[in-house]
Every structure is written in structure tokens, then in C-alpha cells.
Amino acid sequence: MDSEELVKLMNQVEEKGIGWDAVEAKTKVPKQILDLYVNSGPVPVTLIKSMKGLLEEPAQ
């Protein structure tokens, strides 16, 4: 997948106020690795799906 989609998802995470620790727990990928994907791509489809799933969960 394109790194542009990951950038959009990461921005949505920040807008919703979701902590990066929650993102790391859901995706099993550290924030530093996400930042590397943003800069270098391509992004694994499973990572994009995990981030979308996290964003679609109801707020607690």
C-alpha cells in the first residue's frame, strides 16, 4: 500500500486523540516503525487494515 494512506490514518489517530500505545498494541508495530514506513513505504496491507480497524472501534 501507499505510504500516503498510512499518513492519513496516522493523522486520524492524532485527531481522535488515540494514544500511540493503543495503536502499537492493536497493530503490534512500534511508532518508530510506522514512521519509517511513512518515509520509505510500501506499507503492508495488514498494517493498514489494523489501523482502520482501530479507528472504526467505538470510543471508550
Rg for CA atoms: 10 Å
Helical content band: over 70%
Low-confidence runs (pLDDT<50, min 5 residues)?
A: none
Q: What is the residue-averaged pLDDT?
A: 90
Count of DSSP H/I helices: 4
Overall SS class: mainly alpha
Largest β-sheet summary? none
Shape descriptor reads globular
Order of helices and strands: HHHH
Give the CA-CA distance, first to last residue: 29 Å
Total individual domains: 1
Number of strands: 0
Beta-strand residue fraction: under 5%
Q: How does the SSE layout of this entry go?
A:
Elements lengths: L2 H14 L3 H8 L3 H10 L4 H12 L4
Helix pairs in contact: 1-3, 1-4
Structure description:
- The protein is an all-alpha fold and 60 residues long.
- The protein has one domain.
- Helix content is 73%, strand content 0%.
- The chain has helices at 3-16, 20-27, 31-40, 45-56.
- The longest helix is centred in the first third of the chain and has 14 residues, at 3-16.
- It is globular and about 30 Å long.
- The mean pLDDT is 90.
